[in-house]
């Protein structure tokens, strides 16, 4: 039963079906004016691959109309069908929305959609669209080998061959006399999920990982680390974490899960293998890549595609410090291993107040060091709870209620520009709830901001993957002055055992940790593939002029080159589109760039 005055479930269904019918008829007749009239003036249409093999966000009626004119004729769309039951929701200034999933087809793909209609649900007119997401869910003829499509091997076939599953797995992993279609660089969660998606489309894939064991990237991090977001949003594609797992996953548990995932999903991973570099041959449409492999030798391979999944830790950003050569203590970047360093009773200066700066300061404090943090510019600090969780409220609300795949889709239906608008008021509410924490920090001189346009930490994450800290304890230590703070100054120079600051003060020092971040990922591309490829690909991450994350998971301007990375939901959701793009290319369906 709905609330008094609210339409019944049957009426909601009728509104949704009528809307879908009118929408599909207008598209079928190529009557884009009619489609435009069904849109709110402030509408967003996000499309993931169905109409242009790209990720697109259109904002406003004019953009939608000209995009439809340009792209819709190429593929068409038909067979629109309501999926499940419509629901009443709310978003931003729209306190009542009618939301529902639908399915459709194009010439080459099956698609799924999610729409939010706004306006008076009791009116008899067609409700305008505030947001619509259309996304490719399957390439026709190439379904994922999951569920009812799972591999079926006749148990009696075993009597006709000596090879069993294990033999075939070992042979597949070796790539002895053949090359994979795809090489994924990095076996973090992004690389592994991309490989898992490709595996389900029967694309031969090798993941190369420089560490000794899959998951070492997490094992090497500080001892007390737990993931910063709750488990409900961190699940892996195809293999959600067990129901028994804790809300915040400890890093070693996650590291072991990465290994288990690779094994269970039958991924071909070569550890102790470093991707050294590669060149693209445009005439052959293949890469030539060089790997240094576990036995100390090298191997050259010729894959059609490369997915770079090396995380943010591409090339460390190192500030130039006067006197560093004369410094008698230890200097290391936050990406370097600091676990083995004996810091008990040592004076440690951590330069940088981002997430790694805080994490390392906290870790070293717990290991008995006398830690000072040096903060150059303001950052956004958010409590883990109650504030940071509000950014992914949808996952928390739907845990155990809706299938994760539906929640992911609903989340993807909110374009980044709309997220920006929503995070203005939300981040101010967060700051209000965190008043005590933020006041405490201000009192000890910590420099705070709420983002360049007052949109808080989440937009900083989307724009820069930096400039914020979710408080997992270091802020409390700073407030209690157990971690000391120097803000608004910089290191003027180093002497053999001291840092001299720009205000003339100094600090005796044994260890200097540079938590100064990383160069943009484009520089990691440059280091691995050279200037031409890096310049062609362009900047990676951050919201581009088309309203989408730049060069993430989608096609880049470099043929055969993709980038995977970011958080767990991004890897889980967007890896499927990278995999479909690659499959489409291998099957000759993808138009060339
Ligand atoms: C403390 C902390 C808590 C976090 N909590 C969350 C959370 O709750 N939810 C969330 O979504 N995100 C969280 N994140 C962010 C994010 O999920 C991680 O940063 C994640 O590790 C990114 O995964 P990735 O696969 O892109 O990169 P990485 O995990 O960095 O993996 C990259 C891999 O590439 C390998 N590699 C690099 N170069 C080469 C080369 N040349 N050849 C071969 N291998 C190479 C590396 O060894 C590494 O294994 C957290 C991050 C931190 C630090």
Explain what the structure shows.
This protein has 17 helices and 24 strands. With 593 residues, it is of the alpha/beta class. The strands form six sheets. Strands 2-1-6-5-4-3 form a six-stranded mixed beta sheet, sandwiched between helices. A hairpin with a 6-residue loop joins strand 1 and strand 2. Helix 5 (189-200) runs parallel beside helix 17 and helix 11 crosses helix 13 (456-464). The model has no long low-confidence stretch (mean pLDDT 94). The site of flavin-adenine dinucleotide has 27 residues, from helix 5 and strand 10.
Summarize the structure.
Strand 15 (347-351), helix 8 and strand 16 (370-375) form a beta-alpha-beta unit. The chain has 593 residues and is an alpha/beta fold.
Described by its quaternary structure, the protein is single chain
Strand content: 15-25%
Helix content: 25-40%
- Work out the number of β strands: 24
The Rg value, from CA coordinates, equals: 26 Å
Mean pLDDT: 94
The helix count comes to 17
Strand count, sense and barrel status of the largest sheet are:
6 strands, mixed
Runs with pLDDT <50, length 5+?
none
């Amino acid at each position: 039963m709905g609330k008094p005055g609210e339409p019944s479930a049957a009426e909601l269904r009728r509104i949704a079906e009528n809307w879908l019918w009118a929408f599909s008829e207008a598209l079928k007749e190529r009557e884009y004016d009619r489609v435009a009239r069904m849109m709110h003036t402030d509408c967003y249409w996000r499309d993931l691959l169905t109409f242009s093999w790209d990720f697109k966000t259109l904002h406003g009626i004019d953009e939608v109309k000209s995009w439809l004119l340009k792209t819709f004729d190429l593929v068409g769309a038909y067979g629109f069908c309501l999926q499940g039951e419509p629901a009443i929701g709310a978003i931003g200034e729209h306190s009542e929305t009618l939301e529902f999933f639908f399915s459709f087809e194009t010439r080459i793909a099956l698609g799924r959609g999610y729409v939010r209609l706004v306006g008076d649900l009791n009116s008899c007119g067609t409700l305008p669209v505030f947001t619509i997401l259309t996304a490719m869910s399957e390439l026709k003829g190439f379904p994922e080998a999951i569920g009812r499509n799972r591999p079926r091997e006749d148990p009696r076939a075993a009597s006709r061959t000596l090879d069993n599953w294990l033999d075939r797995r070992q042979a597949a992993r070796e790539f002895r006399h053949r090359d994979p279609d795809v090489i994924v660089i990095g076996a973090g969660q992004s690389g592994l999920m991309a490989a898992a998606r490709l595996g389900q489309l029967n694309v031969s894939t090798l993941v190369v990982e420089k560490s000794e064991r899959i998951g070492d990237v997490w094992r090497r991090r500080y001892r007390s680390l737990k993931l910063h977001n709750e488990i409900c949003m961190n699940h892996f594609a195809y293999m959600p974490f067990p129901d028994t797992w804790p809300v915040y996953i400890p890093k070693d548990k996650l590291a072991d899960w990465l290994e288990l995932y690779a094994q269970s999903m039958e991924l071909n991973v070569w550890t102790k293998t470093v991707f050294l570099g590669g060149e693209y041959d445009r005439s052959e449409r293949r890469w030539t890549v060089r790997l240094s492999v576990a036995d100390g030798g090298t191997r050259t391979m010729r894959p059609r595609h490369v997915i770079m999944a090396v995380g943010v830790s591409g090339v460390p950003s190192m500030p130039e410090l006067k006197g560093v050569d004369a410094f008698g203590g230890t200097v290391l970047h936050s990406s370097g291993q600091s676990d083995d360093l004996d810091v008990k009773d040592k004076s440690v200066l951590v330069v940088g107040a981002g997430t790694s700066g805080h994490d390392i300061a906290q870790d070293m404090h717990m290991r008995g060091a006398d830690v000072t943090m040096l903060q150059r510019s303001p950052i956004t600090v958010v409590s883990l709870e109650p504030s940071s969780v509000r950014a992914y409220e949808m996952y928390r609300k739907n845990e155990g209620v809706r299938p994760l795949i539906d929640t992911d889709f609903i989340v993807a239906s909110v374009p980044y520009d709309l997220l920006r608008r929503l995070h203005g008021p939300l981040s101010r509410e967060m700051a209000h709830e965190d008043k005590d924490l933020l006041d405490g920090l201000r009192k000890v001189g910590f420099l705070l901001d709420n983002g360049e346009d007052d949109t808080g930490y989440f937009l900083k994450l989307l724009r820069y993957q930096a400039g914020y800290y979710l408080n997992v304890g270091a802020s409390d230590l700073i407030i209690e002055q157990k971690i000391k703070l120097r803000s608004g100054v910089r290191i003027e120079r180093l002497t053999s055992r001291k840092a001299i600051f720009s205000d003339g003060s100094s600090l005796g020092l044994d260890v200097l940790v540079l938590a100064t971040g990383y160069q943009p990922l484009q520089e990691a591309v440059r280091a691995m593939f050279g200037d031409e490829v890096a310049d062609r690909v362009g900047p990676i991450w951050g919201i581009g002029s088309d309203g989408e994350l730049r060069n993430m998971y989608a096609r880049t301007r470099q043929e055969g080159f993709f980038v995977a990375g970011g958080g767990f939901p991004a890897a889980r959701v967007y890896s499927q589109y990278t995999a479909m793009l690659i499959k489409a290319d291998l099957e000759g369906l993808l138009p060339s760039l």
